[in-house]
Write a structure and sequence with these properties.
mainly alpha; 13 helices; 0% strand; disordered C terminus
Length: 290
């Protein structure tokens, strides 16, 4: 009996190994399908918003037909499906793989735009870190620089305005905190960043008013008047200019009107032209089907 134990163990081991081998063969069996069928199944699952199933089919297109034009399309479709499931980092990785292999492809403009959208969709409120927002701005600008006449560039221009306004809002949020804490020089640094770098955003009037507040608290009245004049010249109908006027009155200071030529102006900036036919987000992000 003692001699039979090793033999029994050997038989069991061999049997289990044989079963495992057959199981693996069944599980990982390579069943070649026509590329059109695989891609069509993926596209259908994508249309039905079954994104995980779509990704699996597109992966099979690449695995079975890696050198076909269908495989190239499948890469982008995979990136789009990952974007729709909020797998932003995976989507970006798929896009970068596509661009590394097919940098001059006709769908590259779409790829760069989709990459930008993977950042844009994650823009956070101004109270949080803005690294994603800066990445979104860089990616959107990349679309415009590379493909200025494309439909994606037109939509990117609109989103750049919103992204820059968000970054300016972050500067204002920090600047207001410094102002409340009495760190006036630091506050002025933030407000000046808005005035100089984000002069086409909606944050500028408040930045000018807060600068007036800071300079008055520092006792530097001439600079306060200079920023007040700048605010009044560029935004005479804004609520922030009215607040500035009342602030001077409360301190028994006169806000003397100056001639237009004597008044300072905001740094000149030429905002990107917008096209009246800017496509809707959903249309711009439709996956390529060519």
């Amino acid at each position: 009996m003692l001699k039979a134990a090793p033999l029994l163990a050997l038989v069991l081991t061999t049997t289990l190994a044989s079963c495992a081998s057959r199981g693996d063969e069944e599980r990982f069996a390579y069943v070649e399908e026509p590329v059109e069928k695989l891609y069509g199944e993926g596209a259908e699952q994508l249309e039905r918003k079954r994104y995980e199933e779509a990704i699996a089919y597109f992966a099979e297109v690449e695995r079975q037909h890696p050198y076909s034009a269908w495989a190239r399309r499948a890469m982008l479709m995979t990136a789009y499906a990952q974007y729709r499931t909020n797998d932003y980092e995976d989507s970006i990785a798929s896009i970068e793989r596509f661009l590394a292999i097919h940098p001059g492809n006709k769908d590259a403009a779409y790829a760069y735009y989709l990459k930008a959208m993977n950042f844009y969709e994650r823009i956070r409120d101004v109270g949080r870190d803005q690294d994603i927002t800066r990445n979104a701005l860089t990616a959107l600008e990349d679309v415009i620089r590379r493909y200025p006449e494309s439909e994606y560039a037109r939509d990117a221009r609109l989103k750049i305005d919103l992204t820059r306004d968000h970054l300016a809002g972050k500067e204002m949020d920090v600047g207001r905190w410094y102002l409340r804490e009495g760190q006036l020089v630091a506050a002025l640094g933030r407000f000046n960043t808005v005035i100089e770098q984000y002069q086409t955003t909606s944050q500028v009037p408040e930045a000018l008013h807060r600068s007036v507040e800071a300079y008055l608290q520092l006792g530097i009245v001439p600079e306060a008047k200079r920023y007040a004049a700048l605010l009044g010249h560029n935004f005479p109908d804004s609520a922030w200019y009215r607040d500035t006027y009342r602030l001077f009155e409360s301190r028994d200071l006169q806000l003397v009107a100056e001639s237009p030529k004597a008044r300072p102006e905001l740094p000149s900036a030429t905002p990107a032209a917008k096209d009246e036919e800017t496509p809707e987000v959903s249309a711009a992000l439709a996956p390529p089907t060519r």
